Amino acid sequence: MFKVSEIGGILVSIMYEFTHQAEIRSLSDEAISAAAKALMKGLLVAFPTETVYGLGADAFNGAALARIFEVKERPRFDPLIVHIAGIDALERVADLAALDQAAREHVDALIQRLWPGPLTLILPKQPSIPDLATAGLPTVAVRFPDHPAAQQLIRRSSGAIAAPSANRFGCLSPTRAEHVQEQLGDRIAMILDGGRTGIGVESTVLDLSSCRPRILRPGGTSRECIEAVIGAVHTESLQLSDPCSPGQLKSHYAPRTVLTLHHREEMIVLPYGESEGYLFFDGKSRDAWYRASKPGDAPWIRTLSETGNMTEAAANFFDLLHELDKSGCSAIRGEQAPEEGLGSAINDRLSRAAAAK
Length: 357
What we know:
Largest sheet: 11 strands, mixed
Distance between the termini: 33 Å
CATH class of the largest domain: Alpha Beta
Number of helices: 13
Strand content: 15-25%
Number of strands: 15
Helix content: 25-40%
Radius of gyration: 20 Å
CATH architecture of the largest domain: Alpha-Beta Complex
Number of domains: 2
Order of helices and strands: HEHEEHEHHEHEHEHEEEHEEHEHEHEH
Strand order of the largest sheet: 1-8-2-3-7-4-6-5-9-10-11
């Protein structure tokens, strides 16, 4: 159940209208301070992280949180991630005392080795975090981003910013300020422009609130990295209509253009469709397809990484999907990545995009 104050915040958000295009500001001390002041007034600010651009609101302000859902057109059963700017701030949002000893040891090890970084932890929440941020759940999703501008913004505001990706719900995640402007520019107060994000896919979500660690969403921290710190983890294959973590809906991260997903063996023998776009994992599969299909001048061909470098492929993923989505092609054919390292995050996003037919 939501508190009365939070229901009031939802009503406020319905009446809240933006009458101007968001100001895009290059990163500077002055711009970050202005963005922090806007957050403290209850406004929404988009900002870069190492993963994708986030749509930030004061995590302790119920009315501001309600605006996130209204602006993104996001269902209120989908929890938000709360961003902090230091390990010392964790206990302001998470009730670590509610964890058993094994879980607490896992938390300590992970934050020492993998924070700051693209890893979100699901933990018991503190009462100070409004239920709207957690979809009424007793747990909170929290992470410490590895981006200096994001950290400064958090420290200069309330110390905790709730921030899903800065896009319309279900659409492609933004890796550039222009992507945010295209989708939300008339709905938010400011966009901090930090250039293209470095990792390019969202954070991994790891649940430490249950009896065994579970990856609820693959992302920018690989399963292998996590298991090197705390041992074996379970991977959920859930595709929920009522998620307990961000990024668990079956259809998500989708371009407007219909996307079909193919294994490498299928991709390299596809007949060429003149109106179609193609997203290959590496140069080898693209070149094999060229030899088999002989497409001639094919304008809508994109490759995540010429050499098959997984980090480069992840960084390019949403950027290239945005390009294809705006190209005018009638459909997109996407190749699955190898299921290792960041490949699981790429394939997760491709699968959810393909489910949006």
